[in-house]
Specification:
264 residues; alpha/beta; 12% strand; globular
Length: 264
């Protein structure tokens, strides 16, 4: 399984690069670095963790390209559908648009809304005595939005042990380093609000797999996955000009070589 997950992560990165290169050639560009930081998280979620009855919500909508590649790896969408990314009229724009048949339950883009939506789904499932879990992926910069903390309080009050929040904790956001914009000690804050809180290396398949082995109960869960923005491409890592950008052919070939040489 570890080899399978690593292979999926590598395939996702290669597809992200390919689709961003094409989008750049068409003058659009894409959110590349925010997508690259999420790859292992989504590979583990979609290939190992999420069951048929479970629900996934992407709150960090600018990571939509990584989401689409994960849906492809899981066999939920086809390669042809994935290749329609950012083409006019496609079901797969730069930020996800709700379409249940494609495995997308939430239209994201405006940040700070996904956790509240996920809490509503979790509360409904609890009232219906449904065993489904609700997984929601957020960015750490997104947690600057106050609506998130209202949802965090609600989840604890309503004993939503069926919700699992994952934070793509890459320490950066569109305007720069998160700690320079609003420095939050996320571990301490989530614990203070009564959430079961775990920290892991968000690029380690082993650590992510262990982090998702959650105990049953009535306490909401959060996994703080420490990641690197632009992971896998040296000239993009921790370089915020790649938050949204285009790849020229030379950059694309260099990035491909770096990702392709990573062992499985």
């Amino acid at each position: 399984m570890i080899n399978k997950l690593n292979a999926a992560a590598k395939s996702m990165r290669l597809n992200i690069l390919r689709l961003v290169a094409r989008a750049g050639a068409e003058g659009k560009g894409a959110h590349i670095a925010p997508s690259l930081s999420m790859v292992e998280i989504l590979a583990v979620l979609f290939i190992k963790v999420i069951r048929l009855q479970d629900v996934f919500v992407l709150s960090k909508g600018h990571g939509g390209l990584a989401y689409y590649t994960a849906l492809r790896e899981a066999g939920i969408i086809t390669g042809e559908q994935l290749d329609s990314f950012e083409i006019d009229g496609s079901d797969f724009p730069g930020q996800p648009s709700k379409r249940i048949e494609n495995g997308i339950v939430f239209s994201s883009g405006s940040l700070g809304l996904g956790l509240s939506y996920a809490c509503g789904l979790a509360l409904a499932a609890k009232k219906q005595c449904n065993s489904k879990k609700i997984y929601v992926l957020l960015g750490d910069g997104e947690l600057n939005e106050g609506s998130n903390w209202e949802a965090v309080m609600l989840a604890k009050q309503q004993k939503l042990g069926n919700i699992v929040a994952i934070v793509d904790y890459n320490g950066m956001q569109s305007d720069g380093a998160s700690k320079e914009i609003l420095d939050l000690d996320l571990e301490s804050i989530f614990k203070a609000f009564g959430w079961q809180t775990r920290i892991c290396d968000g690029h380690s398949i082993d650590e992510l797999t262990a982090a998702f082995e959650l105990s049953e109960g009535e306490v909401p869960n959060v996994i703080l996955a420490k990641t690197i923005k632009g992971k896998g491409v040296s000239f993009m890592e921790k370089n915020n000009i790649w938050h949204h950008n285009r790849l020229n052919d030379e950059q694309y070939q260099n990035a491909l070589r770096e990702v392709d040489c990573v062992g499985i």
